[in-house]
Amino acid sequence: MTHSLVCAETVSRVSSVLNRNTRQFGKKHLFDQNEETCWNSDQGPCQWVILEFPQRIRVSQLQIQFQGGFSSRRGCLEGSQGSEAFNKIVDFYPDDNNSLQISCPGLRSVPLKAAG
């Protein structure tokens, strides 16, 4: 059984928001459990999401969902411990549809330390 590591104390940052309209497309929609909303980035070749967890975590699976027609062709999961530089953990290649996708199900369990 899996559960989300994202909690109320998790700090999130995103690369951009479509038309800077944070009310309709902001990062708050990343984890609101509402399929009618989403974070929507501005156009550009490299978009990202950073999550800073309040405690050390262990990642064993990544679940992601896009709006159909707006999927990334390639994603990269990176991690760091504290203020260290990010290191690539794994590349993943999502399908261009709006179903919940489990990327990296065989991902080795990777410990990540809380930022700060």
UniProtKB/TrEMBL annotation:
InterPro entries: Galactose-bd-like_sf. This is Nuclear receptor 2C2 associated protein. It comes from Rhinolophus ferrumequinum (Greater horseshoe bat).
